Amino acid sequence: MFSTALVLIIIALLFLRNQMRPIIRLANAAEAFGKGRPVGDYKASGALEVRRAGVAFADMRRRIERQIDQRTTMLAGVSHDLRTILTRMRLQLAFLGDTPESEAMRKDVDEMSNMLEDYLAFAKGDGDEEPQETDVALLFEELEEESEISGNNVKASFDGPSEVLLRRNSMKRCLSNLVTNGCKYGQRVELNGTIENDWLIITVDDDGPGIPEDQRDMAFRAFHRLDLARNQDKTGSGLGLAIARDITRSHGGDLYLEDSPLGGLRARLRIPA
Q1: What does the alpha-carbon distance between residue 111 and residue 189 come to, in Å, rounded to a whole number?
Q2: 150 and 97 in one domain?
Q3: Are residues 110 and 191 in the same domain?
Q4: What per-residue confidence (pLDDT) applies to 221?
Q5: Half-sphere exposure of residue 223, counting CA atoms within 13 Å on the CB side?
Q6: What is the dihedral of CA 112, 118, 120, 121, to 10 degrees?
Q7: For residue 87, what is the domain's CATH number?
Q8: What is the tally of structural domains in the chain?
Q9: Would you call 210 helix, strand, or coil by DSSP?
Q10: Domain range holding 213?
C-alpha cells in the first residue's frame, strides 16, 4: 500500500506540474499585456479548461489590439483634416498683416492647435509604441534642459539604477505634462525618482497653490479644470492630468496626487519596474 501510494503521489505531482505550467504561462502573458509589454508567441495548452481560458485571452487580446488600430487610423484621418483647416486659417491670417485683430486670432489658432494635439493624444493613447529599455535618469535630464530653455526652474534627480522597460515617448509626455503643470502654477518644480522593491517611484513637486484633497479625484477627469483651485487666467484643455494618469495606467501603474513638501502639489507615479 505504501509503495502504491508513493507511485500515485509521484504521478499526481508530475500531472499537476504539467497542468500548472500552462496556467503560469497564461498568467505571465496576461500580466505582461496588462503592463503594456510584449506578450510574445503565446499558445494555449494544457487541460481543456486551461486551453479555453488561453484561447479566450488570445481572442480578447486580438480584439483590443484591433480596436486600438481602428481608433488610431480614424484619429489620424481626423487629425489630418483638422490640421489642414488650421493651416488654411494661418495662411489667411498671414495675408491680413500685423494688426491687433490678426494677432489675437493667431493666438486663438495656436491655442486651438495645442488643444487639438491634447485631445488626439488623450483619445489615441500610446498602444502603438513598443516598450524599450529606458534610462529614466537621462529622461529627467532632457526634461530639465527643456525646462531651462523655456525659462522654468526645474531640478531633477534620480537615485540608484535607472534602466526600466517603458514606452519612452509616452512616459516623457506624461512627465512633461506634470512638469508643465507645476511650472504653470508654481515658481519651483522638483522631479525625483528611484526604484524600490521592483517599483519605479517618480515624484513631481511644485510650490504652487496645490489642489484641495476633496477635489483631487475630479482633477483627473477629462476636460475638467479646477478654476477655483488654480489660476483661472491660465489656458489649457483640462487634459494634462488625465493623459498622465492614462499613460501611467497603461504601464500597469497609477498616479496619485498628494501634498508636496514644497507647499504645493505632489504628483506621485508608481510603475512596475
Answers
A1: 24
A2: no
A3: no
A4: 77
A5: 4
A6: 160
A7: 1.10.287
A8: 2
A9: coil
A10: 132-272
Same domain, 111 and 210: no
Q: What span, in angstroms and rounded, lies between the C-alpha atoms of 63 and 60?
A: 5
Q: Choose the final residue of a domain: 102, 124, 146.
A: 124
End position of a domain, from candidates 95, 124, 153:
124
Least confident segment among 71-75, 126-130, 160-164: 126-130
- Structural contact between residues 70 and 79, judged by C-beta atoms closer than 8 angstroms: no
% the chain with pLDDT above 90: 17
Q: In the chain, what are the helix, strand and coil shares in percent, each to the nearest 5?
A: 60, 15, 25
Both 234 and 268 in a single domain?
A: yes
Same domain as 141, residue 99: no
Give yes or no for residue 150 having a pLDDT over 60.
Answer: yes
Going by the DSSP 8-state scheme, the letter that residue 215 receives in this structure is: G
Which residues are CB-neighbours of 110 under 8 A, at least 6 positions away? none
Nearest to 251 by CA among 151, 130, 135: 130
Mean pLDDT of the chain: 82
Q: Domain holding 249: CATH number?
A: 3.30.565.10
Residues in the chain: 273
Cell of 263: 507647499
CA distance 87 to 94: 11
Reduced to 3 states, what is the DSSP secondary structure of residue 53?
Answer: helix
Same domain, 54 and 112: yes
Residue 49: phi and psi, rounded to 5, are -65, -40
CB 141 within 8 A of CB 156: yes
Q: How far apart are CA 241 and CA 66, in angstroms?
A: 27
- The answer to whether residues 78 and 189 belong to one domain is no
Quick: pLDDT tens for 99-144: 777 788 888 888 778 777 766 766 665 556 778 889 999 999 999 9
Q: Give the β-pairing of 199-206 and 189-196.
A: antiparallel
The reported pLDDT for the residue numbered 232 is 46
